[in-house]
């Protein structure tokens, strides 16, 4: 089975549409690793598009903030975007998001947004955190987002050294899932990359070929930034899209 893996869309319709135009020719089903909303200016459009994919979805911290109203843990810009999103998000899409679990599984692959010990808020971004995650992982692989940075970790057996699987300089990445190893793989961010590259980021998981491939897809960042400014969201949320930070 070939899965398109989408994380951290963040209400960026142009980025999502561009990614889907590329992946739709190759995938059988989609996985969404949370944070479809927040930061961007088109939450309703993005949630509606995700609802049409029949995807396996897990909740991110931005969905949790929208649903619970608890946003004290977020940065100032994120709080402003979530307050605005709460006002404009259609009730039917709020109900749709409320159905998403915090974790899920497909074909022996564990799905979560942040980290196994805290699926919503914890960051899995270094070997120490990866070692903790592997100690809790009862699966051959785990897919996650949250850091907005495509990267992987692998461990041989259940007690081997944790190794970093880096992305290429152009932000793409191809990982062959070798027998005898376990993997933690980050799909990067569709709508707000933070690895210094503004192109949208998504992945293709092929469970038959045992490969995980990160793709970069260009989109109209200027148009998205203009929409963010037009609705009155913080200008920093627009500016960072142009730099990929």
List the helices and strands and how they pair.
Blueprint: E1 2-6, H1 13-23, E2 29-32, H2 43-51, E3 56-57, H3 61-68, H4 76-88, H5 91-98, E4 104-106, E5 109-111, H6 127-136, E6 141-144, E7 151-156, E8 162-165, E9 173-176, E10 181-186, E11 200-206, E12 211-217, H7 221-230, H8 235-243
Parallel strand pairs: 1-2, 2-3, 5-6, 6-10
Antiparallel strand pairs: 1-11, 4-5, 7-8, 7-10, 9-12, 11-12
- The total strand number stands at 12
**Spatial extent as radius of gyration:** 17 Å
Largest pleated sheet:
6 strands, mixed
Annotated CATH architecture? 4-Layer Sandwich
How far apart the termini lie comes to: 33 Å
Write the element-wise H/E pattern from the N-terminal end onward. EHEHEHHHEEHEEEEEEEHH
Low-confidence runs (pLDDT<50, min 5 residues)?
Answer: none
What is the CATH C-level name?
Alpha Beta
User: Total helix count?
Assistant: 8
> Main sheet: which strands, in order across?
3-2-1-11-12-9
Mean pLDDT: 95
β-sheet strand percentage: 15-25%
What best-fitting shape do the alpha-carbon axes yield? Answer: globular
The CATH fourth-level homologous superfamily: Metallo-dependent phosphatases
């Amino acid at each position: 089975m070939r899965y398109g893996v989408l994380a951290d869309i963040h209400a960026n319709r142009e980025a999502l549409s561009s990614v889907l135009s590329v992946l739709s020719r190759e995938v059988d089903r989609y996985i969404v690793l949370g944070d479809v909303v927040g930061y961007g200016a088109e939450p309703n459009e993005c949630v509606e598009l995700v609802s049409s994919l029949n995807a396996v979805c897990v909740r991110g911290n931005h969905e949790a903030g929208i649903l619970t109203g608890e946003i004290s843990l977020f940065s100032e810009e994120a709080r402003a975007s979530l307050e605005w999103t709460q006002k404009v998000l259609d009730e039917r899409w709020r109900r749709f998001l409320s159905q998403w679990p915090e974790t899920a599984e497909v074909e022996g692959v564990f799905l979560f947004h942040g980290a196994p010990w805290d699926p919503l808020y914890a960051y899995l971004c270094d070997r120490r955190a990866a070692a903790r995650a592997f100690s809790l992982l009862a699966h051959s692989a785990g897919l996650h987002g949250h850091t907005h940075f495509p990267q992987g970790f692998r461990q041989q057996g259940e007690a081997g050294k944790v190794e970093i699987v880096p992305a290429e300089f152009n932000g793409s990445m191809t990982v062959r899932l070798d027998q005898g190893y376990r993997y933690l793989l980050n799909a990067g961010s569709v709508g707000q990359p933070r690895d210094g590259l503004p192109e949208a980021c998504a992945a293709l998981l092929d469970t038959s070929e045992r490969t995980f491939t990160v793709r970069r897809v260009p989109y109209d960042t200027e148009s998205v930034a203009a929409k963010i400014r037009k609705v009155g969201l913080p200008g920093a949320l627009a500016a960072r899209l142009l730099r990929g930070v």
